[in-house]
Design a protein that fits this description.
With about 325 residues, this protein is an all-alpha fold. The protein contains 17 helices and 2 strands. α12 runs antiparallel to α13 and α13 runs parallel beside α15.
Length: about 325
């Protein structure tokens, strides 16, 4: 069993079906031998694979199981992972207050367990949370410091150009994006952070109107269009198809973009990922307004109305402002 767990972590990649098979084999062996600690590890691995594959019922069931096992075993390291998993799920679904409290508790328990990863887990969750809350400036310094403090993780390097874009520093964003994009993003190996990194860099390419890099990222992500993007199992940013829609929109491949946005709406809704449904609705509406085909304005109006309502309800001011600006520019709402 230990060898199988090691195989999972050593070969962690976007190939979620292969990872799920390993996780299930660990679970079978742990259940057969009555090894509660390995059973917990199996649920942890299964959770990652199942969330990547977008299976919400299985994710919810596994969370209950590993929480119960963590309480029985009473090992701080396992209790930390249980809290992290619950925080990931809460943040994905827009339960921001619960997600933040769980992340804070996970950090406390993880530090008690002397887990080096606890700081990474908390910081990456805090980035996602503060971005949705329109408070990126509060975590900018922490994220920049994390590049060196957690050099083994590449996610922080990919967050910085996105922060620069969203805080209006286009020149800095482009410089850092160019560094990451060298040799077709070869500095980013296809590991457990890869889908997360490339998904967020897709947003950077779009904001910088970089069609060449958008086309590269599109080719790299396309085989994984049916998956949900995670960063090392510790935070999720929704359906990969949404980012493919963003990339296809950037290169004006309108029909491909529409297909990906439709797929993203289905996946994010299936997961109950309300923030990512709203983001997809807004991005899809922007694409439809740019395309301007018959019926596009009417569909864009409906999508923006739904996105704005969700942003307001969930407390996502940045999203609300961007969706309202689009609706205003399109003439859907009065100044």
């Amino acid at each position: 069993m230990i060898a199988l767990v090691s195989q999972f972590t050593a070969t962690w990649s976007p190939e979620a079906e292969r990872l799920l098979a390993i996780a299930q084999e660990v679970g079978r062996l742990a259940d057969d031998t009555g090894d509660a600690e390995r059973a917990f590890q199996a649920r942890f691995l299964d959770h990652i694979a199942s969330l990547t594959l977008g299976e919400p019922e299985r994710v919810a069931s596994i969370m209950d199981e590993h929480r119960a096992l963590a309480n029985v075993l009473k090992q701080p390291a396992l209790q930390w992972w249980s809290l992290v998993m619950r925080s990931v799920w809460a943040l994905l679904r827009g339960q921001f207050s619960d997600g933040e409290q769980l992340a804070k508790e996970a950090l406390r328990v993880g530090q008690r367990a002397q887990s080096w990863d606890a700081g990474f887990s908390y910081r990456i969750a805090l980035f996602v949370l503060r971005r949705e809350q329109g408070r990126l400036d509060e975590v900018e310094k922490l994220i920049r410091e994390s590049i060196d403090e957690y050099a083994g993780y590449r996610s922080f390097r990919c967050l910085v150009p996105l922060i620069d874009c969203e805080l209006g520093r286009e020149h800095e964003a482009r410089r850092r994006f160019d560094e990451l994009a060298a040799d077709e993003f070869s500095a980013l190996p296809p590991d457990g952070e890869w889908l997360f990194c490339l998904s967020l860099l897709s947003e950077v390419a779009a904001q910088l109107h970089d069609g060449e890099r958008a086309a590269q990222l599109y080719r790299m992500l396309l085989p994984y269009r049916q998956l949900n993007a995670l960063a090392a199992g510790e935070v999720s940013v929704g359906s990969v198809s949404r980012y493919l829609g963003v990339l296809a929109s950037t290169t004006r491949q309108w029909n491909d973009a529409a297909r990906h946005y439709e797929d993203a709406l289905k996946m994010n809704a299936k997961l109950g990922a309300r923030p990512w449904v709203a983001h997809t609705q807004r991005d899809y509406a922007r694409m439809l307004l740019a395309r301007g085909a018959t019926g596009d304005r009417e569909r864009a109006r409906s999508l923006l109305s739904k996105a704005r309502a969700s942003y307001e309800e969930l407390g996502m001011p940045t999203g609300a402002v961007s969706a309202s600006a689009l609706a205003l520019h399109a003439g859907f709402i009065a100044p």
